[in-house]
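assembly run, all chains below
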Amino acid sequence: MLVVMQAHASAEDIRRVCDKIESLGYRAHSIPGAERTAIGITGNKGEVEPGTLDEMPGVQEVIRVTKPYKLVSRDMKEDNTVVSFPGTDATFGGPGLAIVAGPCAIESREQAFAVAERVQRAGAQFFRGGAYKPRTSPYSFQGLEEEALKIMAAIRDQFGLKIVTEAIDSESLELVEEYADVVQIGARNMQNFSLLKRAGRGRKPVLLKRGMSATLEEFLMAAEYVMSEGNYNVILCERGVRTFADHTRNTLDLSLIPAVQRLSHLPIVVDPSHGTGKRNKVTPLSRAAVAVGADGLLIEVHCDPDKALSDGMQSLYPDQFDELMVQVRQIAPVVGRIVAGSGVGAISGASAR
Amino acid sequence: MLVVMQAHASAEDIRRVCDKIESLGYRAHSIPGAERTAIGITGNKGEVEPGTLDEMPGVQEVIRVTKPYKLVSRDMKEDNTVVSFPGTDATFGGPGLAIVAGPCAIESREQAFAVAERVQRAGAQFFRGGAYKPRTSPYSFQGLEEEALKIMAAIRDQFGLKIVTEAIDSESLELVEEYADVVQIGARNMQNFSLLKRAGRGRKPVLLKRGMSATLEEFLMAAEYVMSEGNYNVILCERGVRTFADHTRNTLDLSLIPAVQRLSHLPIVVDPSHGTGKRNKVTPLSRAAVAVGADGLLIEVHCDPDKALSDGMQSLYPDQFDELMVQVRQIAPVVGRIVAGSGVGAISGASAR
Amino acid sequence: MLVVMQAHASAEDIRRVCDKIESLGYRAHSIPGAERTAIGITGNKGEVEPGTLDEMPGVQEVIRVTKPYKLVSRDMKEDNTVVSFPGTDATFGGPGLAIVAGPCAIESREQAFAVAERVQRAGAQFFRGGAYKPRTSPYSFQGLEEEALKIMAAIRDQFGLKIVTEAIDSESLELVEEYADVVQIGARNMQNFSLLKRAGRGRKPVLLKRGMSATLEEFLMAAEYVMSEGNYNVILCERGVRTFADHTRNTLDLSLIPAVQRLSHLPIVVDPSHGTGKRNKVTPLSRAAVAVGADGLLIEVHCDPDKALSDGMQSLYPDQFDELMVQVRQIAPVVGRIVAGSGVGAISGASAR
Amino acid sequence: MLVVMQAHASAEDIRRVCDKIESLGYRAHSIPGAERTAIGITGNKGEVEPGTLDEMPGVQEVIRVTKPYKLVSRDMKEDNTVVSFPGTDATFGGPGLAIVAGPCAIESREQAFAVAERVQRAGAQFFRGGAYKPRTSPYSFQGLEEEALKIMAAIRDQFGLKIVTEAIDSESLELVEEYADVVQIGARNMQNFSLLKRAGRGRKPVLLKRGMSATLEEFLMAAEYVMSEGNYNVILCERGVRTFADHTRNTLDLSLIPAVQRLSHLPIVVDPSHGTGKRNKVTPLSRAAVAVGADGLLIEVHCDPDKALSDGMQSLYPDQFDELMVQVRQIAPVVGRIVAGSGVGAISGASAR
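ok done. output:
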């Protein structure tokens, strides 16, 4: 159920509608738009009687929402959500393309700093690196945990990069929130509803990756879980889905970007590193992701990928990342986007093929 | 790495090899077989030097295992694992077929007892019912939680049925272990590695459902996560995978059963209710699951499926479950299995089509 | 559009309705049922005006069919279609289970006769063997063509087995119709609509395999293509679909069997050889196919599979086929089916696992 | 098997090697490269003895090819294949991006001419339109057949557009070759090997669409079928594959483009109309296809899509096609491509989102 307020409704009107909703045992989510405020109603008890709210002062209409998602929907909030970071011009969903780069896993201070220095120079505003690694095998490297978080905090201090890193359970989420700027929920946890709710009660933006076989609706519903707890700063991320195709590790589904943008106000970025699993596919698919209209890119970069403790095969060399940024800078304006920083790469301008 | 002990190796020999492994910073898993004991070595540090163990008394050979899974493998343990329950003859993996039945969710004491009475009478040894429900929407019924666990404990007392129910995070796992006989990990959490490790440190058998797009190897590796923490009582469950096919909710992959049985000693059961999502497909696919050689069935039964708070569409009426048991009893002997209890259904004998 | 005639409608009434339909530029398909006749209307011109037919003598009702398939539908013909072969009791869709067995490809007279002798002795009524092989590579063995057809005709004469073999284009179809008893259309040609229409104008029953990624509706529509040309003897065949799963060559989708049986009157058989692609999975999945309610099995058998020119990996040894027939004989009665012949295997009775 | 000739080998040397190969009962395919000639050996009889050819004059080396495809491979021919059309500068695989546009089906002379006029003006060099339509239902519009071919021939005369249209069997192929410039083989016929061979014996370039669940290897092998008969002008086309995802009709797999370009010298284009099945996704995915490096686009355009006899839902309005061409012109240079004609759209320059 969605209550759309009149354009001239007062703050007092809005407060009274919210109080009424809460008094009925539901939860009210007031989301201000450019012109008017909408109030979403959620709860575990079934449908509200619309009559109760229809006649209150300032209420324009009460809409029965038939789509299973509400807070993520453009019906609820027409304008794009822009996730911003005080003191910087980095955003997800703003006019600037969000560039998130870094190694799959933080392996040491030296490794992480070396990568950070290069990606910052090339124009990234966000640094990504795994502290907690969800690995298929219990015997694979599982991450440096809090030590990695501390290294990334030092990277923020030194390079001014905002930190994006994954939390895999309540305990790690607690620590990630303390050290990082964006909490990543990985594909394998996209339907770990306890973790989603916990992230929804947190204070940091959440970057939510699409599950390996999630439909668009399931993906949006996972975001709804986070938002239903009160955290509205959710960034979606397409990272490839599982199909019969075997020439890439996953099949990157770029058609999801315009599909999400039609239905939802949330920003959506693309991870071509996991999406393809092969270094030589990352640059062409990054170009395609920008061209399709994505709000940003997540790119794995490693100075010595052959020695990486995880996912080396899909990590770019720093020089390749420079070249990618050159190409991204050329395509971004076609879709009305800008790319922060002039970037080292800006000098080169080599052909893309 | 796997240490195979000689047939005549003493308990002292075995203990010494285990101590040596632990002193090297790894973990030793001693698993006694019919003839000889094998000791699996796991750990987060890379490969052990085999030379260290090769020459110890009682050691027959040290095998480098190239498959990513070890503890789940038939290389490690040739005989089938039989998960048994003291004081009953109910097992998973023994000669008797394990029949687990009950409603998708526990909705009330009355509802649960009514179903329990019927499924016990028809020959089930296990009762299943959701206390914590992982639902796609945050606004759907999420389960009665501890209240449901108490109802199921009462069902065990009254009907002698063993209780199988799902845990969705560390907190619910704590409670499920306290009240239930088998802890279920759902498909959506198959790669929630924190939960798998936590279940591995628990004392109750774990029924692990295959993820919606999990390969055989990923499924076995998830079981390996549980076993690597010391809990060897893992029961696998095929419940359908996600494909393009739209005539069923999921595509039940019965070929997984012989594939698992070749590679692993763990028991594997089939859930045709989630595997098809349609009531009229449950009985034919249950017959097929028994015929293919599964160790048991998970069946949703509800006395009033049209009013079920979740998954009513795929729940059998008690009379249909009686009929299913009749057919299962006829097929089981062909694959060398027996079905406990004579069952009400035994009288009927109606044709299956 | 479907015209349902009254139970007492005369042959003359039926003829007049058909004439009327044809005079309107459509095609009439009169299909007599146990109680009453239904007349399907097909054509390339859009919808008929129902009013024209409603009032004619003998007409009970005119039904607008919203499902895209008509002739394949149970709405059109309630009773199961039984494809029978004069002079034998072999059928597809009758009480007897249809057992079709033979090598993937006919390689020589010796090879084919050796297999035929064994499968006939074990209880098969149909012999299958490839004369024209649709191979992924143009450089692979493409079949002995007409020579193979002659060998199979000789097998029919000697062993009394009915012959099932694939046609891959109009030219081969011409010859297959001349020599064989059932024309097979392979999975890769399921939407080769020209071939389907050509087979629909033929006089021999058509065994149509499901395409590798065909939905149930597309599969039924392919059968509709054959039937719309006047050939109503269509046998459907599930042979596995393409998914992400890699433990079998294809994923055998046994839930298709009850789904087809609900919607269509056509018989449906299962090919566990192509459906799994692995010899050790053929027997368990054959048991499952019979248990789920399929009308028959297609099994590849080869006396020396390691030397087979195609698909040796999935062919059973004759002894394994004997054993499979033993198990099939035990399961068939549970689903109300009988298996022709006592079979050599009947003696053994070994356990199925 | 591949014979690589020395750089200075004479035409006589090459001829002698080819003769030798043919005398051994195989087929020789001599393909001249920038520096040297390679000779592919194909045939249905197994491996050639390399010793026979190794010592002949002008031979540099004889390579056993382990990949199943030969003629399509970059090993065989390092330089990109450019399919060109005498008297025009339109190509597939050259520096210019190939733009193929037109209605799904030719419905009438008026409809076709109206679309042709618009797409030619916007910069397309190729006109596409269905004369023979492979439709899921036998009762759907199946195309105007030869009448449509005549309309398209008239369009070539009037607008100078080259004609691309689909053949569905030997009979239609005969006619399509007579009237059109490029013969299209549709996704459903990608493994109709008889049709592929027939097209391989033809004189017109073949545009081959990827099957709905074809792997990269199967796709290349289908092209190999055409080439093995002597027609080397094959253009590949990605048009979406079938997955569980339901927000688009198919899942457009853009990662196939760089994957094909690594392995094969053949040009590859993208069809975002069938690839998404939704009008509002065509433009963003067209941008992405150009950015990923495709050699061209196939776009459905219809002046009145709501009245289209097939696939109206995915057809662009002419104005939308103009706008798409503006965006394509902006992205093409980033990947080193040019777009023929200045195009009407070139004036506008509106933002892409």
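Chain B has two domains: 2-63, 83-347.

Confidence is low (pLDDT under 50) at residues 343-353 of chain B.

not gonna interpret more than that til we talk
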